[in-house]
Amino acid sequence: MATSDLQETKLDAKSQTSVHDKHDPTLANHPFVESNAIPLPEKRRKKGILGFFGGLSREDAEEIERLAENVTYTKEEEMAVRWKVDLRVLPIIILSGNAHVLPEFNKNFDITNNNRWTLVLSIFYVGYCLLEIPANILQRHIGANRFFFMSLAWWGISSLSFVYSKGFKAILALRVLLGIGEAGYYAGMIYYLSFWYKRRELAFRISLCMTGVVPGWIGSLLAFGLVRAHTSVLKGWQFLYLVEAVPTLVMAVVILIWLPAFPFSCTFLTTREKAIAQARLREHRPKSHGGASGWEGIKLVSKDITVWAFVILYTSFNTCVATISYFLPTLIKALGYTSIQAQGLTVGPYLVGWGFVWAQAYDSDRTKDRGYHVMASASVGLVGYIILATCAEKAHGASYFAMYLITGGAYSMFPLVMSWAANTLAPTSKRGVGTALIVSVSNCVSIASPQIYFDPKDSFRKAHALSAGFPRKQKKNRFMGLAILSALFIRTRLSMLNKQKVRALAALSKEEKELVYADGLEELPDDDLRYVYMT
């Protein structure tokens, strides 16, 4: 039996009994622990809230954690709790992530050449990069509902401002504001979901929330339908920004009211169910309060070579995602279609890509594998870029088919890589800072990603070759090929670390093993001998 399977089997077995042999004497006769009776939810005044940016009640969180240490529950009860979380938390996160879509072009802002357009695309990432890590630390302090409300409200207002803005300077300023609004959102969403789901449940849930293919095909349909709309008040492109802004602002309010900040503060679970939701995550023990601080998380992340390997992996494929999301209509138009036809034809690659994303994420969770699935997705994207680089104008059908491969391969790596990183990094502060760092550094590189497709004279063959990983002159820049190599390195490294931990545990005496397993750490760090990496 695989090491990770062995650990999860032990954890499932423990779910029928007490977690620790040493019970808290204050809870020994607690009816919550001794029986399956479900007490009525307790209503408390949240303490420690000093305005909107105040923290949540530490006492409530600590109570649920104490109860979770001793709660006993059946598999059926665990599944019922997870189903409640799926029905309440996931729909809100999914809708918030897919409420906004960016149109691909705008003639109102004096974008007279390709250089100006690539600058507009690139400047978006400035605020994104600078605020990613601080935003993630802020989320843990004020709770997910307030943080996501701020993010979406800022984004929606910025998007709404496009409707009546004019000029090149205006679009540059608004693009920076959009980047600030999106900073911390995707990494924060992954961080938030890790408080609700086991490691082997995470990739598929992330795929439902953050792939980007849903905004892609929705945006394509909207652009195809609305770009020709004209009234005495608004033009087609203004309708696009209006349609993307209003749902985002609505979702901001929905999130503030209905999304739980943390599992311990949710109202749709009883006190017992909250403890079960916490107890079933014993394999990585997420902690909403206490533990290592944000600064300690930064120090842990900075000296972990695995984190930097994830940075390289994420950067390599995210550069391809950034370019294909911006230039897909342009590439299709180059095959001989009109601008409106090209906009409509982007729907196909995004829809097929959506299915591939879900299939990869589901199978990754089912098989408890991340590395091989990441390499498979990168290989699919690599083949697509090779076809484009060699058949750009010679075979239009093959080139269009290649765009399906690129979209599915590149976008499917989002949930796989980010769930893999979240599975790997512990404690909670390291996970939050680490996922934010990965996204932040990657988006710093993405500032330059639109520049890859700067020269259409050769039908973007050089850009396709660069994205694939075999450019002739820029030999230091290899994207999909680099993604495969970095994923192989991470999987090999984590597998070796798991084997080292098994050997270290086997070398301990019986008394030493008892001391290790009796260690009542609030959180299990990833360098602990009991922590098994998902490979």
UniProtKB/TrEMBL annotation:
Keyword Transmembrane in annotation: yes
PROSITE patterns reported in the protein's UniProt record: MFS (PS50850)
Membrane-related topology note: Multi-pass membrane protein
Keywords from the UniProt entry: Membrane, Transmembrane, Transmembrane helix, Transport
Region ranges (Disordered): 1-26
Localization per record: Membrane
Top-level taxon in the UniProt lineage: Eukaryota
Domain Major facilitator superfamily (MFS) profile: 72-501
GO cellular component labels: membrane
Regions that span the bilayer: 117-135, 147-164, 176-197, 203-227, 239-259, 305-328, 340-359, 371-389, 401-421, 433-454
Molecular functions (GO terms): transmembrane transporter activity
Name of the protein: Major facilitator superfamily (MFS) profile domain-containing protein
